[in-house]
Automatic annotation (TrEMBL):
Family statement: Belongs to the ComF/GntX family.
InterPro entries xref list: ComF/GntX_DNA_util-trans, DZR_2, PRTase-like, PRTase_dom
Cross-referenced Gene3D superfamilies: 3.40.50.2020
Domain Double zinc ribbon as annotated: residue spans: 68-105
Naturally occurring in which organism (per UniProt): Desulfosalsimonas propionicica
Pfam families referenced in this protein's UniProt entry, alphabetically: DZR_2
Protein's recorded name: ComF family protein
Listed PANTHER family: DNA UTILIZATION PROTEIN YHGH
SUPFAM superfamilies, sorted: PRTase-like (SSF53271)
CDD domains tied to this protein: PRTases_typeI
Superkingdom of origin: Bacteria
Amino acid sequence: MWKTSAATRKNADLRARIGRALINAVFPEICHGCGRFMPERPIQTGSGRDPTVQADKRDFARRVLEPVLCPDCLADIPIVDSPICPCCGRPLKSRQDGDHMCGRCITEKRSFSKARSALVYDGAVLALIHSYKYNSRTCLAKPLGRLLYEEFIRHFDPEEIDAVMAVPLHARRMRQRGYNQALLMIRHWPEMAAELGHLQNWKIICHDRALCRKAHTRPQTGLDRKARKKNIQGAFDVSEPGFCKGRRLLLIDDVMTTGATIDECAKALYRAGAAGVSVITLARAL
């Protein structure tokens, strides 16, 4: 085994600090939450362990997002935590009772069986997702995908999911943006499963062609619940029904607001013979 002396390690640390200082002088790192310059961080010379399945969900989110958010934004990172609706995953206002069905899920039938979200769509999280989604910050796909993967491991049994798929974009919007933000976040999942030792029982297929968006609708942003439902109605179809038939599917999206988009996707998948449809989104609007 090769051993390095204290002097060698000290010189390596010094070179790393000098290199970081030169890079930051020319290309200073910016917080994706508030837009301010990021403070200098300690140089990591060893292979840091992945912060997996922390007892405290907020601490886990902070550790994953530390490279892209400043300490002030990390301090107030809004997470989705119990009590929540066990169906749609919406955080409940009352913090005294346990998880229970929200009023909307009691009065309206959902097309999906269960939905969960990692973060609350507010503050630094809102700015972070906007930076990723609208400013071509595709470098954020992996840390955001890590939060999604953790939500998957926390709330789902991998052996009960056959395939993972992203909510698709219409071809016109795909050409405008250049990438599907939901799809990019799950492309690293097999790699994460390998790093965390989950590949032994990993039989999940990441599929990006079975579900398609056949209608180019106006953006849902700014629409109320009724308008969102009408705007997205009939927008999705299944191009490969044979793939969906009999499979338990997990849908991935960046933000869930009223659930109208997810509902329409789930309806299309069930029409194609899906055995089940569950959902994970990066963030949940309140």
